[in-house]
Amino acid sequence: MNDPLPITAAAVGTSLAPVRTPAAQNPALIYLAALASSSRRTMRGALDEMALLLTDGVCDHLTLPWTAVRFQHVQAVRAVLAEKNQPSTVNRKLAALRGTLH
Fold first, then answer.
1. Dist CA 10 CA 16 (whole Å)
2. Contacts for 66-72 with beta carbons within 8 Å, 24 or more apart?
3. pLDDT tens digits, 35-57
4. DSSP secondary structure code for residue 8 in this structure
5. Environment class of 24 (CB within 10 Å of its CB; exposed 0-12, middle 13-18, buried 19+)
6. What is the pTM assigned to this prediction?
7. Is 5 a member of any domain?
8. Residue 53: Cβ within 10 Å count
9. CA angle (14, 96, 85) in 5-degree steps
10. What is the extent of the structural domain holding 89?
11. Which of 16, 24, 67, 84 is most exposed by smallest CB count within 10 Å?
């Protein structure tokens, strides 16, 4: 298997520096709150994984500036996830991302 692609914000040309967003305005927390309790842990883990990928380990689902995530970030995340996971897992993780960015 190939090494994962570099998908940090610098690699795609935009800054994704950590931010502290109030809980009532954090897209990830709003998305997670709408889920059944049985799904929250799984989807929170997916969001954390993508935040870590996008920021080279700097941000998690609480500190990633979700409103700054762009198409090129999503495409890069999709490529890395597809290399490491089964299609159903990729789809589940991307569903968490879609729900957060919606």
1. 8
2. 66/26, 66/27, 66/28, 66/100, 66/101, 67/27, 68/14, 68/15, 68/16, 69/16, 69/97, 69/101, 70/12, 70/14, 72/12, 72/13, 72/14
3. 999 999 999 999 999 999 999 99
4. S
5. exposed
6. 0.84
7. no
8. 21
9. 90
10. 19-101
11. 24
Q: Is residue 67 part of a domain?
A: yes
Token representation of residue 23: 């809980």
56/10 Cα distance (integer angstroms): 10
pLDDT digits (tens, 9 = 90+) for 69-94: 999 999 999 999 999 999 999 999 99
Contact assessment for residue 47 and residue 61, using Cβ atoms and an 8 Å cutoff = yes
Is residue 88 a part of any domain in this protein? yes
Domain count, the chain: 1
